[in-house]
């Protein structure tokens, strides 16, 4: 009787159950990171979620940076070039090693903060405010990771534009010439770009994911996750392109201090080079972030599955020993 009762619900009740399961995070994030088993729902473990998401985020971040670094270098050189200056296509991997050293902890911090904050907000907010939960969690994760992201970005972009040849030299000379604050050059413009970027990208990704799952009535494959991630990344990359140009100009100016701040940078660029300069490098940026979103979210979701399977096997092993 139990089987018959379970196998004959109406379509509308099935949709309500599926929506409820997706809303409560019982599909991927919760199973992967909260150690929920078939017999008992354990309480939300913030540290457990933070650790696993940090591993997944750091892994995904390194994959993206390693795969798409040459496109990022071209984008940076296009944005940094004044007027009709030509860009150098040599040394497209300059600074890659140092960037990877910063990319792992930065991505780890972001995802390690984003996922548990998102889950807590989803538990607090009504279903129709899920987008607000994703936006808020993205901004909080971006703010936390900026303490690592900004120095990494400053060093990377100055190497990409030929000011330094290695990360150790860049750190040593920047600190000598500009002090520790030199490592955080353009911090305000970075937050102006990255907080909206992180919030919008992850909100688009999460909302598309929920809609896709409800329509398909199943969890997505890794390829489908990657496609959704590419779409979210490309849209966000295009929307935030002018902010990225401003951030790049402020970060690479060094001790010359050509621009006195965000507003001065915008007005100087518009006056001397034209408004269209704020959209320089948009093509490589959209390509880079679109492909990067595909790789990042594809690797992220795959890593979640691997970690979930590891926890499941560990629990099974413990149960077997107890029996």
UniProtKB/TrEMBL annotation:
The protein's name: S-adenosylmethionine carrier 1
Taxonomic path: Eukaryota, Viridiplantae, Streptophyta, Embryophyta, Tracheophyta
